[in-house]
Design goal:
- There is one protein chain.
- The protein is an alpha+beta fold.
- It contains 16 helices and 17 strands.
- The strands form four sheets. It has a six-stranded antiparallel β-sheet. A five-stranded mixed β-sheet has the order 11-13-14-12-17, with helices on both faces.
- Helix 1 (2-29) packs antiparallel against helix 7 (149-166) and helix 8 packs parallel to helix 11.
- Residues 168-199 and 490-501 have low confidence and may be disordered.
Amino acid sequence: MMKKIFAAILLFIWIFLGIALPYYFYHNFKNVKDETIKKQVERIRTFSKNTNEMIDKLPSIFRESHTTAVILILNQKSKLLGSLYEPSRVNRYDYGTILKTYKSTELKEYAYLHLPFTSGYSIWVISKKNISLQQFFQSMLENDSKLILIPIVYAFMLLIILMVLLFDPGKKIEKDIVNEVSRKHETKGTGNYKISNDNTFLSNKILLLLDTIEKNFSTSTIAFYSRESGIWKHVMEKTGNLSIKGDAAIENLPNEILNLSDNTWREPLLSHDKNLLFIPLHYRNLLFGLIKLQFTGLASEIDQHSLDTLISLCTRYSDSLFMQRVYDKAVTDSETDFYNYPYFYFIVKEKLGSSQNFAVVVFEITDLNRVSPETTRSWSQDIIVELDKIQLKPLVSARLDRAKFAFLYEVKSVINKDSFNDTREKVDLINLEKVPGIIQNLTHKYFKHTTKLNGGFVIRPTNFEDADTFMQRLDYLLINSAFSAYSSDFNNKFSFDPKKP
């Protein structure tokens, strides 16, 4: 009953927000003040090299002002040289009338603002006095497509409320396990997602499942085994707060399971003393995993219904675990646990499509083929640990090729004014200059000075650039620069958001 009352309160809040927020945004932001437009024109003049570039940036006024419909460009004699218009905000008849009569007639539905533009030129910014709610939100969506997420989240809230009102959540054990195992980890969006290099995503998902089982059942040890090419591999074992990874406990599997040669094993196995339970995990007809549970007490203390629930849930999530294992193998390098080239390329493409500033530390280690895989793995793990100690752990660590690596960092920006009062956006690269020293020291430590480093820093380009061109920048730096914090791009600390005019 209390849950339904709570859901009813949420429904009321949902309805209130659905009415109040659109009303608030519409009445407070539908009309842009003349001073705002004047400042926008002033910015265009300030950041343009010549008149042609200024004219090319005039359409940005439509994005800043939701009501601006027409912009006229005039010479010193007020002769019309050109015009811009937004078809969704002005009909053809009004547009034709404005072009013919702008000197003598002002249409009642429109507001006129005459501004000096540059030496010898001026502009008329003509805006609608009133726009509909639909036109306002359509204009906002055209300016920023990410705003479509707001109604999606709003609809998702309603779905949750209806589920609470209409459906029984079920028994506590099943509900807790389902919620914890299916909880999403921090991941990728256009621009606003987090990536963890501490573990593969599969390890996180397995640990969450084992932890949830431990909370709901009297177990002393829970382990997950992966089966690849007919061989069992111990992936993770959890005892209380202690988690162990690797093949240390593979000998704890019975010979009947170790010698299994086909995918026909379907039914869970319970030991004779009823203290061990083995649950096979399948993806379609492929046996790929196993969960082993060791109970603390007698199995008779756990009723058959609870065991059936546990088996059902482990089986239910087997598809998710299998697909996560495939995903991890596809995006990570097995030797270093860094991400691979395709995944790094995807992240760069996403970042270039957003307004976020970022920097990439790229380097190549010559003669890395002479180094054993074990040494390379230890080197890669120590680099991340050392960078993490000084809070410089990269957002993405990638192995682009056998001997080429890249670390991607998000960087902040601050507004800087020079002596001419020229406002520029300064990329804050503070402390990143420490990264090359750490990489160089550990590389020399592990590889006994048999290698040398090439590469440096690449800052997000100041103008629009696609991912292919950006990756070519990295290759160029690897070929032409000895590795240093002060590579050619590092001192170029000024960057502009390509979405801004």
